[in-house]
Design brief:
With 180 residues, the protein is mainly α. It contains 6 helices and no strands.
Length: 180
């Protein structure tokens, strides 16, 4: 009886440590993505800035779907709206859509190759950018060129490296998918 109680207590403590590690690593990577998103770039490079926050949230929604969902995507999108000075909810609704689809299809995407994942992510980010373009057009702030869609292309090209780096971080700090 005592042995069984000690085993349960050990599992509970391990679960608490795992939750703390998950929150810590996830929070650090999302903060890093926000820092990359607002980092000053030369004028010629601004149009090519990848959508770092969405890429990181996509990874965590695929890797730990029980912890990263549409609520986190909504707040991250609102924070991006505040950071960029855009209409409140503009990035948030796009990010919610992307993470919702990723959340629903995470099991299929996890077994797909990185190139297949990149194709899916390309279309999701293209939809997000089109939604942002639509809102900007309604506000009278339509972009001047097709460079508006370059973040979709650069994010797609960077997806394999983003995935591999975040996967290695997750494995190094033993972030697990399920709770005990």
């Amino acid at each position: 009886m005592l042995k069984k109680e000690l085993r349960k207590k050990s599992h509970r403590q391990h679960a608490e440590v795992t939750v703390n590690k998950t929150l810590r690593i996830g929070l650090i990577t999302v903060i890093g993505a926000f820092m990359l998103a607002i980092m000053p770039l030369p004028d010629w490079a601004v149009a090519y800035r990848p959508d770092w926050v969405t890429l990181v949230l996509i990874y965590w929604a695929m890797a730990v779907p029980t912890r990263v969902g549409v609520t986190i995507a909504w707040f991250a999108g609102l924070f991006l709206d505040v950071s960029y000075g855009t209409l409140m909810g503009q990035h948030a609704i796009g990010m919610v859509f992307v993470i919702f689809v990723i959340h629903k299809q995470h099991q299929r995407l996890r077994v797909a190759s990185l190139m297949q994942q990149a194709v899916v992510i390309f279309f999701l980010l293209l939809f997000k950018q089109t939604l942002i373009l639509w809102v900007d057009g309604m506000l009278g702030h339509a972009p001047d060129s097709w460079l508006f869609f370059m973040p979709t292309i650069t994010s797609t090209l960077l997806w394999p490296w983003t995935y591999l780096i975040l996967r290695d971080l997750r494995r190094k700090f033993t972030v697990v998918k399920h709770q005990y």
